[in-house]
Amino acid sequence: MDSPVKIPYQSFIKINRNSAVSIYMQISNQLINAIQRGFLPFGTKLPGTRMLSEMLNVHRNTIVSVYEELFSQGWVESLPNKGTFIIGKDQYQFLESKNSKKIQLENYPKSTGFTFKTSNILDNPFEYSNCEYIFNDGIPDIRLTQIDQHSRIYSSILKRKAHKIGQYNQDGSEFFKENLSKYLNLSRGLPISKNNLLITRSTEMSIYIASEILLSKGDIVLVAELSYFSVNMIFQKSGVKIKSVSIDNDGINTEEVRKICQQQKVRMLYLTPHHHYPTTVTLSAQRRLELLNLANEFGFIILEDDYDYDFHYDKSPLLPLASADTNGMVIYIGSFGKSLAPGFRTGFIVAPENLMSEMRKHLGIIDRQGDILMEHVLGEMIAEGEINRYLKKSLKIYQERRDYFIHLIQENLGNYIQFEKPSGGLAVWAEWQIPINLMQLSKNCAQNNLFIPKTLLYQNKNLTAIRLGFGNLNTIEMEKSVKIVTDHVKKMLH
């Protein structure tokens, strides 16, 4: 085999003396990489420890440790009076180079060596920007979260109760489920126990699990004419046929739902009744009863997504459809801790026990570890009443922001848009009364440090509308953001 001096070790062994990884392990890992890539094939004699230490400008003892590491992992063997050799199957050919001093190990492969299915259905629809001001989808302001307090509770539980928590299983924290079921019973009228709960990471995960179990290719799923794009992506991935139903000021049109059911077998109806996404319209009490009756009559599932139930200002919110469901036709999906710091938020599913047992199987595959400590923190916040105190405080701030935002857009854009003051939630739905290119408006605003994602823009031949989240903006940010939009609207119209 080639003499050790002919192999340009310096070209593929790079030492970072500022790294947290020890130097001997850096060298060991790069030599193993070279062996795996074929640069050091079977039978290659490695340089003596003194020679390699001089090549790499490290202490000889470092190279001694390197060789010991290679030996312990089974990459080399040491033969008395002969030296240290690479061992293994002779399946590589040494790669020659006319200019051997420039030989370097290849980077990680840029593409697979095999084919696989691709799909554009799940392409990421979200955009990101470094603009100072951002209109989002109605996301809470992380600056209002009491991160220090949450962290103290987390730390306290870790110290006091870690030994009591035990091992996590796919059912999650029993303590959290017990308290969450009581909380949902009192706040949303859901007469459930912990056995009716599945804890997930997000609303999207909840809907994905429900779709995997409840939907088959070719099933018909009804959604509102305007609906949450991420959920539609999940349904499309399931291979179902999506049919849209019109909406008005009372929510989804129940007469259209009936007509479709009379003509075709509908498997599921997805809706956001508390504040319809994206228009923020609340489904009327009468239509809620009509939908429950239709579900019982035609046998379709109602997938109720209550994504922002906690955010209501002017009056008490209507109770979920699931609270009045006596025949097991409604699957209720929600989020908990949405106004808390991101790491303290979670999703959940409420369903009859027979379906819940099947859902736990799927959760056990995709999220078996879970986060039992975080769940325990949330459970303690419920048990001690902390979540209610926090929601009461944050709701006051968000209501003030809603009122001021409504004032600003009415004063500055009232001649161009039409909107209703939302009774809850963190976004305003505005329909433009003038012909305007929303994509161009978004690009123009970005030039002045205001980011308006395309996912907030709704424009076709019959509709020009925008969903503007205000929850993340303080007073000054609202004023500047609305001014930027107003200035560009006027420029585009004149």
Automatic annotation (TrEMBL):
Where in the numbering of this chain does the HTH gntR-type domain appear? Answer: 21-89
Determine the domain of life of the protein's source: Bacteria
UniProt cross-references to Pfam families, sorted A to Z: Aminotran_1_2, GntR
Entry's InterPro entries?
Aminotransferase_I/II_large, HTH_trans_reg/aminotransferase, PyrdxlP-dep_Trfase, PyrdxlP-dep_Trfase_major, Tscrpt_reg_HTH_GntR, WH-like_DNA-bd_sf, WH_DNA-bd_sf
Q: Write out the similarity annotation.
A: In the C-terminal section; belongs to the class-I pyridoxal-phosphate-dependent aminotransferase family.
Biological source species: Candidatus Chryseobacterium massiliense
Gene3D superfamilies named among the record's database cross-references: Type I PLP-dependent aspartate aminotransferase-like (Major domain), Winged helix-like DNA-binding domain superfamily/Winged helix DNA-binding domain
Q: What is this protein called?
A: PLP-dependent aminotransferase family protein
Keyword Hydrolase appears in the UniProt entry: no
Named from the GO MF annotations, one term is:
pyridoxal phosphate binding
* Keyword DNA-binding in annotation: yes
Q: Which SUPFAM superfamilies match?
A: PLP-dependent transferases, Winged helix' DNA-binding domain
Q: Which UniProt keywords apply?
A: Aminotransferase, DNA-binding, Pyridoxal phosphate, Transcription, Transcription regulation, Transferase
